Amino acid sequence: MTTNLAGIENLSLQVTQEIRVRASLDTTFKALVDQLGWANEMPDHTPMPMTLEAWPGGRWFRDLGDGNGHFWGTVQAIKRPTLLEISGPLFMSYPVANNVQYRLSEENGVTLIKFCHSGFGLIQEAHKAGVVTGWSHIHEMARQRAEGLLAKSNSVQ
User: Fold this and answer.
1) All domains of the chain, ordered by start, with CATH?
2) Which ranges of the chain would DSSP assign to H, the alpha helix?
């Protein structure tokens, strides 16, 4: 039997970002939930609508129809409009645990989103390399949505 133990840094992922939004806390929170849900898309703007059940224990998943899809996580904590925390495998289909946290506050007339994605497990290098691009795109679209720069049709509560 051979044991190959990688260092903890090889098993972990940490992404932090701060996003400043020229909109109220309530508007920004709603835009974020919409962007993580029905309005989600890939960085190349290919639609990838998700379902985010925005309540404690709610699921975050991609419904492909006919009973098919991908489970991304569970709402671990929600305190509208200042906190959204999700835990689960996210887009990773292998042994891993992730925690995604959004903390919103007002600062100097804008809403500040403090984002942290922490992951631990057998995280593939391609995911480590691409995760910042994916989150940055989602956050930019949420900012634009909150600031009224994107169409708000099809919005659901």
Assistant:
1) 13-146 (3.30.530.20)
2) 25-36, 125-146
